[in-house]
Amino acid sequence: MVNFSLTDILIIAGFFLVLLIIGLLAARRSEDTSENFLLSGRKVGLLLFVLTNVSTWYGGILGVGEFTYTSGILSWITQGLPYYIFAILFALFFAEKVRNSSLYTIPDKIEIVYGKIPALISAVFIFVLVSPAPYILMTGALLQVIFNIPLLAGLIIALIFSSVYLIKGGYRADLITDVFQFFVMFAGFTIIVIVSFASVGDFNYLINNLPPEHLSLTGGQSPLYVMVWFLIALWTFADPGFHQRCYAAKDGKTAKYGILISVIFWFLFDFLTTTTGLFSKAYLQDLPDPVLAFPIYADKILSSGLKGLFFAALFATIISTSNSFLFLSGTTFGNDIMLKFGFSKKRSVNFYTKIGIIVSGIISVLLAFYVKSVISIWYMIGSIFIPGIILLIIGAYYEKFKVSGKFASAELILGSVSVAAWLALRPYIDNGFRVIEPMIVGLTVSFIIHLFGILYRRFYSSSKK
User: Fold this and answer.
1) What angle do CA 229, 230, 234 make, to 5 degrees?
2) Which positions ≥6 away from 230 have C-beta within 8 Å?
3) What's the Cα-to-Cα distance from 122 to each of 129, 214, 327, 393, rounded to whole Å?
4) DSSP annotation string for 210-279
5) Contact, 54 vs 268, CB < 8 A?
6) pLDDT of amino acid 395
7) Are 325 and 132 in contact (CB under 8 A)?
8) Which of 2, 302, 346, 401 is most buried, by the most CB atoms less than 10 A from its CB?
9) Which 8-state DSSP code applies to residue 94?
10) How far from the centroid of its chain's Cα atoms is residue 372's Cα?
11) Can you spell out the DSSP letters for 358-403?
């Protein structure tokens, strides 16, 4: 258990109160047209774009602490570096195209390029992929630690503080609360790094007290393991959050340069979190539960007040992602599942999006309560649903990589089914093949189908001439 002073509790409670006030005030200024509710009128400027883009990228902060505690700088190699690379590529080759399409969601683009069936399948996939369950779980678990309440109560409180202002204010409320949380998260982690160097030791302390593999690029893992994380980072191209923020930017240049500037801030924040994780390992050595590396380390070295601010930073880092994912899942539910595919159009997309926020929130609380593992949720959802959609996004914006609607549907379905089958059969497969990660299986199947789709399209087109 972490020991908190009254000052710490007041600071944490104050963070939640300010978050709620800011969100509700932003909601009051939000107009109820679809474009305003879903994308803040497509008028988001460069500064606002960068602040919200940076803050929503780090929801899995306890997972980062766990990864760094157990594997050292491999955490940055797998959770930071590949995402910089693919984010830069997205900025250079996709950001302006996405903004200029003036759509609302990825399934909107899938429908235009591949048809309604692939759009519906992709909508279901994205609804699952942007589930805020891991982030609601982390917020609920921290509330449980701080206030000694049941996990379910913590999960419900986490959902309330991630959703109530979204239902009223839409994307604008999401944006403004993310800006506040940007400053809180940077302040908290800057303080713990400064205190670590001042009271614990410098880089020589880390070198002398860390296992050698914690300072190696591979962390003792195989190159295949590292490669899988680079493949997972391909998700950047199909990240609904990236697409949403590009759609909301005031123009293509804002989207492009906003992402490039964000990479600089991601690098800075990664330095802070990785350094904190390394200090936690060197200082605490053998924690029974590494997922609590950041909270326990903060409890040991931070004084009253500073500890409260750091925990507020943990909450800010998680909730800034939780509320964004919750709004994305609500938008996907409302715009891409309910409204387009057979439900009454007497109701607006805003209405269905609000219903989607509630539905996604309830599902996320249940999933978080029964699974109780952030990494398991990430691994399962990412491995199954990412492979089938990556190449279709590329083809949607680059004609040479486009396939027909039938191939798109097959790619979505078989890319995911192959992963699910591999996960089920993997325990019974010979050890020599068991090392093959499910993500690689799914990407291979999707690539083969997509390649055949491109060749078929070219052959069919040439045969008609």
Assistant:
1) 110
2) 78, 82
3) 10, 39, 17, 10
4) S-GGGGSSSTT--HHHHHHHHHHGGGGGG-HHHHHHHHHBSSHHHHHHHHHHHHHHHHHHHHHHHHHHHH
5) no
6) 95
7) yes
8) 302
9) T
10) 18
11) HHHHHHHHHHHHHH--HHHHHHHHHHHHSHHHHHHHHHHH-GGG--
- Please calculate the CA angle 453-456-459 and round it to the nearest 5 degrees: 150
- At residue 249, what are phi and psi to the nearest 5 degrees? -65, 150
User: Which secondary-structure segment (H or E) carries 406?
Assistant: helix 405-425
For the entire predicted model, the pTM comes to: 0.91
Do 171 and 327 contact (CB within 8 A), yes or no? yes
As a whole number, mean pLDDT of residues 129-155 equals: 89
Beta bridge partners of 44: 249
Mention every residue, 6+ apart, whose C-beta is less than 8 A from residue 186: 269, 272, 313
DSSP code at position 44: B
Domains of the chain, CATH where assigned: 6-371 (1.20.1730.10), 382-465 (no CATH)
Q: pLDDT, tens digit, for every residue of 329-376?
A: 999 999 999 877 766 667 788 999 999 999 999 999 998 888 766 666
C-alpha 321/C-alpha 396 separation (Å) is 26
Q: How far apart are CA 460 and CA 465, in angstroms?
A: 9
The C-alpha atoms of residue 380 and residue 15 are separated, in whole angstroms, by 32
pLDDT at 412: 97
